[in-house]
Amino acid sequence: MTPQARVQAAIEILDAVIAAARTKGAPADRLFTEWFRTRRFAGSSDRRAVRAIVYDAIRACGDIPASGRAAVLRLAQDDPALAILFDGSRHAPAPIAADDPVAPAGVAPVWLEQALTASGLDGPELRALLDRAPLDIRINGLKAALAELPEPGEPTPAPFARRFPPGTPVEQWQAYLAGAIEVQDAGSQLVCAAVGAQPGEAVVDLCAGAGGKTLALAAAMDNRGTLLACDADRARLSRLPPRAERAGVTIATTRLLDGGREAAALADWAGRADAVLVDAPCSGTGTWRRNPEARWRLDERELARLTVLQARLLDVAAALVRPGGRLIHVVCSLLDAEGADQVSGFLVRHPGWRAAPLALGAGRPRGDGVRLTPYHDGTDGFFVARLERL
Ligand SMILES: C[S@@+](CC[C@H](N)C(=O)[O-])C[C@H]1O[C@@H](n2cnc3c(N)ncnc32)[C@H](O)[C@@H]1O
């Protein structure tokens, strides 16, 4: 592809990303892959170049741009080498007109940027939400002897994490194939450590998804005890057993929950768990480094729906914890509404509980919990709090 054709491809993909953001359709990564699936003439260097333009444009525009062209023109305003490629030649975008709309720059839609600022994030912290994420792995303590890595990687605040540049092909490494390493952000590993899961304990991972944190909990438990992984999404939860097998985890069982009827499905666990992890469904404001277009999809109504669901899941989780046990609330979001405010609301609803201090070796206090941010900690953004039943 010519450099001009790459720009035109990026514009077309961005048009699809914008349409999907408006209708809550497919994520950008999938649309990118689909566009290239039908264009076999494009090589890997074309893909890399187009991908860079697409994601730079998504990162540059705070709110949904009017069009893919307006989004790329936002980049072209500060990049003459890009602007010159709008030359109207074959497969190229049309030349730039004086009245061509240019998407405004920004970190996020105005309401969301205001909510993040009100949640205590300043300018550099906000901008760092859109940095490119490194690639972190977790060394699986259950198979540590097989974790021979071709490159040592950088240490991070999470003891079992090693950091590599984005795109490092770790999934082709022998250690990965042997289940001795997992791809997992260091922040994700730190919030698992906040559970303090011990060998022999009874632990529930209430929103386990495909089990990223379940596997880390099993390793912390040295594969001894009971670990129940639940989720309301059948497809996600079904990915857990094969991952557990590869990782050598035998203590995890899965239970599919019906949204709204979780308590009944978990009646046999009432008051039994030493610890319950609620890695709650959330807005994902802490993960924009990986899917920056997610900020175009969120609106105030969706945020309100999520905060109601989070409070309900915390109440479901509380009923499972034994006296003296603990509940860990985690969101990969930096909005207080989903983090600190959820915890204060929980403590009002549940007088027999208290917030316990957390020493993660990273992060900063926020309300009754700790917040990890890309800017200060180099991890995805998380809020985590540890609540203890008296
Ligand atoms: C942040 S994700 C969990 C990620 C997962 N713990 C991991 O480490 O990969 C939140 C999960 O909550 C699940 N969820 C949504 N509603 C739920 C409900 N009512 N009960 C249990 N899980 C629910 C979603 O399907 C999603 O997998």
TrEMBL record:
The positions flagged as active site in the entry are 332 (nucleophile)
Q: Name one GO biological process term.
A: RNA methylation
> Keyword annotations for this protein?
Methyltransferase, RNA-binding, S-adenosyl-L-methionine, Transferase
UniProt superkingdom: Bacteria
Q: Which residues form the SAM-dependent MTase RsmB/NOP-type domain?
A: 102-390
Q: Which residues bind S-adenosyl-L-methionine?
A: 231, 258, 279
SUPFAM superfamilies xrefs: S-adenosyl-L-methionine-dependent methyltransferases
Tagged with keyword Transferase: yes
Identify a single GO molecular function assigned to this protein: RNA methyltransferase activity
- Which Gene3D superfamilies does the entry mention? Vaccinia Virus protein VP39
Segments passing through the bilayer: none
Entries under InterPro entries matching the protein = MeTrfase_RsmB-F_NOP2_cat, MeTrfase_RsmB-F_NOP2_dom, RCMT, SAM-dependent_MTases_sf
Q: Which family does it belong to?
A: Belongs to the class I-like SAM-binding methyltransferase superfamily. RsmB/NOP family.
Could you identify this protein by its name? Answer: RsmB/NOP family class I SAM-dependent RNA methyltransferase
